[in-house]
Queue: 3 jobs
Job 1
Amino acid sequence: QVQLVESGGGLVQPGGSLRLSCAASGAALDNYGVGWFRQAPGKEREGVSCIGMTTGSANYADSVKGRFTIVRDNAKATVYLHMNSLKPEDTAVYYCAARRYMLTTSQAFCSVPSVFGSWGHGTQVTVSS
């Protein structure tokens, strides 16, 4: 089973940028599709973006489309979430998750937390002036 560790969160002003990293160990990341989720206080966990196992195809929630980009670097066993034009409503704990042999990246599939079997512990992103 793959283990995941997120990093890169922090405090940023509205309109700013952050890059989150999801580093994998214990198994070859090549065999896993990866999703990013976020959870704000008092709210349910929300699917943000996901990327397939081999095709590199990606999907984004409407709320982040055009602002966030997900990229995988299998050589570094890391998936990145580039976040631009950040808004206060992006404030949340961000989690990465992995599913073995995941090829599909439809929003209906990737936005369901129970689809993913491996999770990191999360990294806090706070967007505030």
Note: The two ends are 40 Å apart (CA to CA).
Job 2
Amino acid sequence: QVQLVESGGGSVQPGGSLRLSCAASRSIFSLNAMGWYRQAPGKQRELVAAITRGDSTNYADSVKGRFTISRDDAKNTVYLQMNSLKPEDAAVYYCNAQYGGINYWGQGTQVTVSS
């Protein structure tokens, strides 16, 4: 089993930056992949970025060049650096981990982008 705790959400103006953190309860090196998803009101949850155990990354087209996913195995933490934020990036952001064929989710952290 894996517990995930997100932090770092908040409210920023368009063009601003935030860094989300996801702390895992076990070694993230043991996890097949970790990622960030987001869900805006009335929309489906969508993949934002993912990183595998081998450090391969994948990004949604809408965030490429603006968001960066990274991992710190020593801290069992995955980060999402979000730059040049747009109003359409506003959503609840969820951390995801895949382990043993099961998807684990954090509780979510709210990101608001408005002037």
Note: The first strand starts at residue 4 and ends at 7.
Job 3
Amino acid sequence: QVQLVESGGGLVQAGGSLRLSCAASGFPFEDFWMGWFRQAPGKDREFVASINGYGTTTDYAISVKGRFTISRDNAKRTMYLQMNNLKPEDTAIYHCRGGDYWGQGTQVTVSS
């Protein structure tokens, strides 16, 4: 059974940092492209960042480039999103994705 479980969300002040984790099971994690997406209230889900199976190629949305860093540890079957200099507009539910599989999400709230 495929599972993607996010953690690490919370409430933080603007300028603060959070580190999200996505623990994967039930599929060959190291073979899969992985990504982070987010959905703010009343908005469509949007791409945040992605990483290839080896962890050697990454991509970022313009809005987070230079502030967020995606990484993965294939031995731990876990993907991460380090978020620095958070802004109120980063407030959203953050979901991880592996292939066609999605996690339930973790809430990130940034206060001004």
Note: The chain has a mean pLDDT of 97.
